[in-house]
Design a protein that fits this description.
This protein is an all-alpha fold. The protein is built from 42 helices and no strands.
């Protein structure tokens, strides 16, 4: 592109050569009339401008007022201007440093828009041009003079005068060939001043002359900038795109760029820059998309998108830049450049750390350019290796990303996406070396998503459909696991089918990888599966084969084989074989093994079943031996207790009491909280009794009575316990149990009365009179409160208790001796007599014959004793014989009524004989009567002392 300063010398050459101008023949110095100066029109211009200037000046001096004076004056002015201008050569605009685009400025205009250099004395030329115009104001060719004058003004720094002169040229000489440049120069001055509103129509005026003007291209470019500076971005874009349309003609913009000259490339680059700035100010992504949605088939559209994105990148606006790249791909999915644009979008999102957007862009890439997408109907993958590589990397990355995401969320939807991306990769790049790894990972994702059937198939393909690779053995093993998991999800025929596939996979592993670490495990699992299917024969064969492997299989696998053998033996009732196999398995098993407790139970069950078989055959001794072996072979087994209980039961049946007692006692010590403890107590009580251990039996019965259970059994146990304690000479313990019985069964009135009666007796035995009398009174109280529940037995017991209490009161009566002072002792004696009589009356009121006769006898004896006490009372001291005799007679008179009462009561008691009741007390009453009235009762008898205890 030619600089503005470079235009002027070309114009001067044209003018100096007197080229035709608007149809007129410009006159030369050769046309001077009758001049002796000869100018050869065909000769070249003189190189020495000063010599030429001198000649023209000489001409004017010699021929003033000549017809060619004006032309000579013009030549003088031009030569003067050239001489002045030649002194300083100006700098071309093309040599100036380019403007920094980041400042978003416009192309600059030279300080002086119309000169190539500063003349030595520009004012001299200005004076000459002005004199010429003043001398010949209406002369043709003044447009050229005005042009030169404007140039001289500009070179002298008088831009306003230059601007005005150019305006005069435009207004007065609209047809002048200098008008286009005049518009351009005025526009440049307006642009330099920043008056873009004036520069715009001025540049537009240049354009009105058409493309033939040399200022057309630059004016159009500067017109666009003028609009841009006024923020008229849409009109500016129209101008800039027109420039690009001219420069990038043809079907392939990229090719056209390569064919441009350096200056044209710079123009295109600068135009693309300002276009990108315009779109940026208009809104960026939306603006550029809206524009090209209405301006289709723009061959350089990709360059525009790229330039705008690069602008954003320079400003580190990564998100906006990435969206621009992505927008081109979105709007032109079938464009050959679309994949590369989307690739750049992904890279830019990553650069800006917009992870989510980068991921979305990657997904968009994979969805748009997967090999089964419509894009590849127009293109061959072989011609776009970069896109294929990008697709390969993206599919890999998306699959791994969604797989990792799914592992965190455990979401089926996330797993589905991961699996889909793996599938796409394997579909598009099945022959790639990485496909083996991704096939394995896809199987892993299926497994983790619990799609075990699909996972199993994928694992097997990974293991067996490729040459040897790092994941084949792992995949073979994982396939087996997946088959097993799938089998667990289904029922019926489907389960059987998956089970068979699982077995086949195990055998396949062992066949393909005989030295695989999982070969032996596969055999072990096959044996287990055959066993589970009920195929005992092949299961046994595989298990035995595993045990014979050299070198030996791992301990856990041999243990597994022994377990299969043990289980088969157990299921086939070969319990001795099962016991042996289980012992072998346990010997190989860690004490911390989780299944050890189960196998211990199996071992115990094998031994127990051997005992049970003998018990069923009637061999109780052999059965008990097997039962007792369990505690030694499997002490932690849950059936040890049951086995020992059964052993004790067998020993009891065999009446081997000492052994039975020992087994039961051991049971109690080892299993204190076992649910059979109650039954053990029953059996122990029985065994103790049979073994002559009454006291131990009593303890067991007491224990049975204290625990929760059937009330009737508890009552019986407690009662039996108390009885056994009595029989064993343990009255205190017996009393404790009777008392427990009363407390435990307060509503058992009948047995409760018996228990109270026995408690009284037991306390009497141990000499605890207080507790003895307490229980007698309790018998009376309970019977009295029983109401309708009272029975003959309860009344009898209460009557007997009342009788004993009465006899106790009689003893208290007997203890009081009548002594001086007689009045005092007599009162105490009488009070106790009344108490004892009342007690006897209470006993007699029960109406129990044998108690009534005893009570009647007792009352009679109290009266008799009171009379005797009077007669034997202490006499006052100092009485004379006569006074003593008189005193005795007085006592006799006092004692006589008591004796009479005694006789009457005894006679009443003796009358029971006529009623058929002739018990001890009736008989004793006869004896007393015979003593007191011997004449009436011939047979003398003496009374016996009162009862001490209840018979």
């Amino acid at each position: 592109m030619m600089s503005r300063a470079g235009l002027w010398p070309m114009v001067l050459l044209m003018l100096s050569a007197c080229l035709p101008f608007q149809g007129q023949q410009v006159r030369t110095l050769d046309d001077l009339d009758e001049s002796r100066i000869v100018v050869n029109p065909d000769s070249t211009l003189e190189t020495d401008h000063r010599q030429a200037l001198n000649r023209y000046q000489d001409f004017l001096a010699v021929e003033p007022g000549a017809p060619l004076e004006r032309e000579a004056m013009r030549r003088v002015a031009d030569l003067q201007f050239e001489i002045d201008n030649a002194a300083h050569t100006g700098q071309s605009t093309e040599d100036k440093p380019k403007q920094d685009k980041s400042s978003e400025g416009s192309p600059e205009t030279d300080r002086s828009v119309m000169h190539d250099g500063a003349p030595d004395d520009p004012e001299a030329a200005i004076v000459l041009y002005r004199d010429l115009l003043d001398t010949y104001p209406n002369q043709e060719g003044n447009d050229q003079v005005l042009y030169q004058l404007a140039r001289a003004y500009d070179d002298s720094g008088r831009q306003d005068d230059a601007y005005a002169t150019l305006g005069h040229l435009i207004s007065d000489y609209s047809e002048s060939p200098f008008v286009a440049e005049a518009h351009f120069r005025r526009a440049e001055l307006d642009f330099l001043r920043g008056d873009y509103a004036l520069a715009e129509p001025a540049y537009d005026g240049v354009l009105s002359f058409g493309k033939q003007t040399r200022f057309y291209q630059q004016s159009r470019y500067k017109l666009g900038w003028s609009l841009f500076k006024q923020e008229s971005y849409d009109p500016a874009l129209a101008v800039f795109f027109a420039i690009l349309d001219d420069k990038l003609e043809g079907s392939d913009a990229t090719t056209m760029l390569a064919d441009l000259s350096l200056s044209e490339k710079e123009l295109v680059d600068e135009t693309l820059d300002v276009v990108s700035l315009s779109f940026s100010y208009l809104g960026g992504e939306d603006a550029i998309n809206d524009y090209f949605s209405t301006h289709r088939d723009v061959r350089y559209e990709g360059q525009v998108y790229t330039t705008l994105a690069d602008l954003y990148l320079e400003k580190e606006r990564y998100f906006d830049a990435a969206r621009i790249f992505q927008s081109f791909s979105d709007h032109h999915p079938q464009d050959s450049r679309a994949p590369s644009f989307l690739t750049r979008a992904i890279e830019t999102f990553r650069q800006g750390r917009f992870k989510a957007q980068a991921l979305d862009a990657m997904i968009a890439f994979a969805q748009a350019y997967d090999l089964d997408r419509p894009y590849w109907r127009n293109y061959s993958p072989s011609t776009q290796p970069e896109s294929i590589n990008e697709l390969r990397e993206i599919l890999d990355a998306l699959a791994r990303h969604h797989h990792a995401l799914a592992q965190k969320s455990d979401s089926p939807a996330d797993y589905d996406q991961a699996i889909d991306w793996y599938h796409r990769y394997l579909t598009d790049f099945s022959d790639e070396p990485k496909s083996m790894e991704l096939h394995y990972l896809s199987a892993e994702a299926l497994f983790e998503a619990r799609r075990y059937g699909e996972a199993a198939v994928a694992y097997e393909r990974t293991a067996y459909n490729y040459p040897s690779h790092p994941w084949d053995r792992r995949a073979a093993k994982a396939a087996i696991v997946a088959f097993d998991r799938q089998k667990g999800l289904v029922q019926g025929p489907d389960q059987a089918l998956w089970h068979l596939r699982s077995l086949a996979s195990r055998l396949r592993l062992a066949d393909r990888f005989p030295r695989h670490l999982q070969a032996a495990p596969a055999m072990a699992r096959a044996a287990q599966d055959y066993f589970k299917l009920g195929e005992y024969e092949p299961a046994m064969v595989v298990a035995q084969r595993l045990l014979l492997m050299k070198p030996q299989a791992a301990t856990a696998l041999r243990q597994s084989a022994w377990l299969v053998i043990g289980h088969i033996g157990f299921d086939q009732a070969a319990y001795a074989d099962a016991e042996k196999a289980y012992r072998e398995a346990l010997a190989l098993m860690s004490s911390q093994d989780k299944i050890r407790p189960d196998i211990v139970e199996r071992l115990a069950s094998s031994i127990y079943q051997q005992g049970d078989d003998l018990r069923s055959a009637g061999d109780l001794a052999g059965a008990s031996n097997h039962f007792l072996r369990i505690a030694v072979a499997a002490p932690s087994s849950a059936i040890v207790a049951a086995a020992e209980y059964d052993a004790a039961a067998a020993l009891i049946t065999l009446k081997q009491w000492p052994r039975a007692v020992a087994v039961l006692e051991a049971f109690r010590g080892r299993f204190p909280k076992h649910k059979l403890q109650d039954e053990v107590s029953v059996k122990l009580a029985t065994a103790y009794l049979e073994n002559g251990q009454g006291l131990e039996a009593a303890r067991e019965f007491e224990h049975l009575g204290a625990i929760q259970g059937e009330p009737s059994l508890r009552q019986e146990a407690l009662w039996r316990s108390a009885e056994l304690y009595e029989e064993s000479g343990r009255p205190s313990r017996a009393a404790r149990v009777y008392k427990h019985y009363i407390q435990a069964f307060p509503n058992d009135f009948t047995q409760g009365m018996e228990a109270r009666q026995r408690l009284a007796k037991l306390n009497l035995t141990v000499g605890n009179t207080g507790r003895y009398l307490f229980w007698l009174r309790d018998v009376i109280k309970v019977d009295k409160q029983a109401g309708p529940s009272r029975s003959d037995r309860s009344k009898t017991l209460a009557a007997q208790a009342s009788l004993i209490l009465a006899q106790s009161s009689q003893k208290q009566f007997d203890k009081v001796k009548l002594k001086l002072p007689l009045k005092k002792s007599l009162k105490a004696k009488k009070q106790r007599m009344e108490k004892a009589l009342a007690a006897y009356q209470q006993a007699a009121d029960y109406g129990i014959a044998e108690v009534s006769t005893a009570a009647t006898y007792g009352m009679a004896e109290i009266y008799r004793a009171f009379g005797r006490a009077l007669m034997s009372s202490q006499r006052p001291k100092g009485l004379s014989a006569e006074e003593l005799e008189e005193y005795d007679l007085l006592l006799e008179e006092q004692a006589y009524p008591f004796e009479e009462d005694a006789i009457a009561i005894h006679e009443d008691n003796s009358r029971h004989a006529s009623e058929g009741l002739y018990d001890r007390w009736v008989k004793d009453s006869y004896k007393v009567l015979a003593e007191m009235l011997p004449i009436r009762y011939v047979k003398p008898e003496r009374s016996e002392e009162f009862l001490d205890v209840i018979e």
